[in-house]
Design goal:
With 225 residues, this protein is mainly α. The protein is 56% helix and 0% strand. It comes from Thermomonas aquatica.
Length: 225
C-alpha cells in the first residue's frame, strides 16, 4: 500500500535529505486513489513540514516522540515495556521480516512504527489489515495524545487509525488522555533518569546512539549528536 510507505516516510525522524524529495512527497500525497479529505490532510502536513527548516522540524519531532514513553513509536514499548518478553518479540519480528526478504538498516529497531509500515507497504492487503488491527489500540492512543498536544503529526496517526479500523472516533480516548500526567516535562524526565536502572548487554545504548528511533536522549535539553 503506497499510503503506508508515505506515512512511514513522513512519520520518521526528518533527515535533511527529506527536503530534497519535497516534490515527490507532495505528489504522493496527491494520489487520486486517496479520498479527497485525506489527500488534503496529508498534503497539508507535507507542506507544513517542508516549510520548516530541517533543524526546527527535527526538534519538533524529538519533542513529541523522543521525550517520554507516552508517544514512543516503538510499538513493543507500549505492549511489553521493559520486560524480558520484549526481547523475544523483537527476535520473532526480525525473523518474520527476514522470512519475507525485508532487510533492516544497521540501527533500525524492528518494532519502530515507520519500519513496520514500510514492511507492511510491501505485503498483501489482508495481511496489512490483520497487523494494523492488532496494534489499532496503540495507534488510537498515539493519535489521541497527539491531538491533545496539538501536534500536526496527529493527521498521520489518524490516517493509520482509519486504515486499521475504518473510522476515527477518538473522543473517549481524548477525554482519558487529557487527565494523564505528562511524561515529557523536564521534571518527569529527570525522575525517569534517576529511577531507571543501568543496563548492560544487547539492549544497552551505544555511545554512537543518535536521537533516532530507539535512542532516547539521556536527559531533556541535551543536544543531538
Amino acid at each position: 500500500m503506497k499510503l503506508l510507505k508515505l506515512i512511514a516516510v513522513l512519520l520518521d525522524y526528518p533527515q535533511e535529505e527529506l527536503w530534497e524529495h519535497a516534490g515527490e512527497l507532495r505528489a504522493a500525497c496527491d494520489d487520486p486513489a486517496l479520498p479527497p479529505a485525506r489527500r488534503a490532510a496529508l498534503r497539508g502536513f507535507a507542506d507544513g513540514l517542508m516549510a520548516q527548516e530541517p533543524m526546527a522540524a527535527q526538534e519538533r519531532w524529538l519533542e513529541l516522540f523522543d521525550r517520554g514513553r507516552a508517544m514512543s513509536l516503538l510499538l513493543f514499548e507500549h505492549i511489553h515495556g521493559e520486560s524480558r518478553d520484549r526481547g523475544q518479540a523483537m527476535v520473532d519480528l526480525l525473523a518474520t521480516y527476514r522470512g519475507h526478504g525485508f532487510a533492516l538498516g544497521a540501527k533500525q529497531l524492528p518494532d519502530y512504527l515507520p519500519v513496520v509500515l514500510e514492511y507492511l507497504s510491501l505485503r498483501p492487503v489482508e495481511e496489512v489489515r490483520d497487523w494494523l488491527g492488532h496494534v489499532a489500540h496503540i495507534l488510537e492512543l498515539l493519535a489521541a495524545r497527539a491531538q491533545e498536544r496539538g501536534s500536526a503529526y496527529a493527521v498521520l496517526l489518524e490516517t493509520l487509525v482509519e486504515t486499521a479500523t475504518g473510522k476515527v472516533d477518538l473522543a473517549l480516548l481524548r477525554a482519558r488522555v487529557a487527565g494523564e500526567e505528562r511524561d515529557d516535562t523536564p521534571e518527569a524526565m529527570d525522575r525517569v533518569w534517576e529511577e531507571e536502572a543501568v543496563r548492560f548487554g544487547a539492549e544497552a545504548p551505544g555511545e554512537e546512539c543518535n536521537p533516532r528511533p530507539g535512542c532516547r536522549r539521556a536527559r531533556s535539553g541535551s543536544n543531538p549528536r
